[in-house]
Amino acid sequence: MVTSIPARQAEGRGRSSGHRRLPSAGGLARLLAVAAIVVALAFGARAFVGQAPAALAALARADLRWVGAAIAAEAASYALIAAVFQRTARSGSGIGWWLSLRTAFLAFGLGNILPGSPAPGITLATLDLRRQGVPPRRTGIALGWTTWFLARAFLGLGATAAIIAVAEGHIPERHSEVVLAFASFLLATVILTAFIAAHSRPLEWTALALARLRWPGSAVPTDPRTAGQQWHAEAVAALGSRKNGELAAMAAVGAWMADALCLQFALAALGVPLPFDLLLLGYCAAIAASCIPFLPGGAGAVEAVLPALLHGWGVPIETALGGTLAWRALSLLLPAAVGAAFVAGSRVAGALSAGRSELHSPKAAE
After folding, report:
1. CA separation for the pair 100, 87 (Å, rounded)
2. b/e map of 293-322 (b: 16 or more CB within 10 Å)?
3. How many Å apart are CA 111 and CA 131, to the nearest integer?
4. Distance (Å, rounded) from C-alpha 158 to C-alpha 165?
5. End-to-end Cα, the chain, rounded Å
6. Which of 182, 242, 339, 351 has the most CB atoms less than 10 A away?
7. Measured distance CA(254)–CA(157) in Å, rounded
8. Higher pLDDT, 301 or 11
9. Cα separation values, 274 from 158, 241, 289, 315, 329, Å
């Protein structure tokens, strides 16, 4: 039987009205993201309520000498991130120290306050390097290695801080087994990622998975396994020698340690003495909270987590909140401002260059 188009449409409407459509994966992800933002902001607002005036008063009494030390520590953190990037892009890339530092502030400074970080920052850094004549593929490999080294260094640092805190007796005995188990998981992850980087097989599996997904607009390699082997060989060649990789790993650890020192100096400016293992543990918890998706820089979540931990370790809540705000201003907002200044300077330089080209064009000469 041939059904007319209006009849088929009416039949379709009848079926759709009888069966409720399930939300798509994208819609569910957006719903969860909005819920996470609401919860984080609610916790952050709760931390501020009633404590903001006292926290601001504590900031007004801050020792500026420690603030200067905190700024120097944060500058050292980004200098070390730039060192990681430069070492992972050194093979014939022509990327110098200043360009590496600029990339660090764009990708991990300005990018941290943009929604969906770190992707927007990496995009900004890639576009900036492309204007400097660096191929996007080279930039992608270098930024991928930089992110990989920083992530592994953070996991190792968190595991070490947890183990030291348990050994020093700063963690209640009833929680020590859970903390040690989590630290063991982090160390196992570090070892597993080292295995992944040392072998081409995981990238071959990734290429096969991408070939089977066949995303719209994506180029499917004719031989996915060969493509995975080529990706691995190119990444290994970009990293260079084993010594270079070790130096990049050391610089990544140093970058996190310098940022943690920025937190310690910010708290010291408010007169807060805290054992470094506890400070490192609280720092790692704050960084983990800042990684909540769709929360720029973990806004709200960090301001809830870190003061609560510091208060649990005996720091007055208003001082803990004031120290957290000072650290966030120096480690989040200040690098973002530097990155924004780089973007503005690049646009001004581009406009001036375009103006000079138009001035010296044949039409202008006429």
Report:
1. 10
2. eebbbbbbbbbbbbbbbbbebebbbbbbbb
3. 18
4. 11
5. 76
6. 339
7. 10
8. 301
9. 17, 40, 21, 9, 20
The residue whose two tokens read 């984080």 is 40
Residue listed under structure tokens 């970080």: 117
Tokens (6 digits) for 112: 């941290």
d(CA 252, CA 228): 26
């992707």: which residue's tokens?
Answer: 119
Query: Contact, 233 vs 200, CB < 8 A?
Result: yes
Of 104, 98, 97, 103, nearest to 74 (Cα)?
104
pLDDT digits (tens, 9 = 90+) for 151-201: 999 999 999 999 998 998 888 888 899 999 999 999 999 998 888 777 766
Angle made by CA atoms 32, 37, 39, in degrees to the nearest 5: 95
Q: What is the dihedral of CA 228, 231, 234, 239, to 10 degrees?
A: -110
**What pTM, to 2 d.p., does this model score?**
0.79
Q: At what angle do helices 136-167 and 276-290 cross, to 10 degrees?
A: 140
Cis ω on the peptide bond leading into residue 118 (within 30° of 0)? yes
Q: Which two tokens stand for residue 35?
A: 């819920």
d(CA 295, CA 311): 24
Q: Which two tokens stand for residue 266?
A: 């910010």
Residue 63 near residue 74, CB atoms below 8 Å: no
Query: In degrees, to the nearest 5, what angle opens at C-alpha 190 toward C-alphas 227 and 175?
Result: 145
What's the token pair of residue 170? 């700063």
Instruction: Quote the Cα angle for 236-191-195, to 5°.
Output: 40
Q: pLDDT tens for residues 25-64? A: 555 655 665 666 566 556 655 655 556 676 777 777 888 8
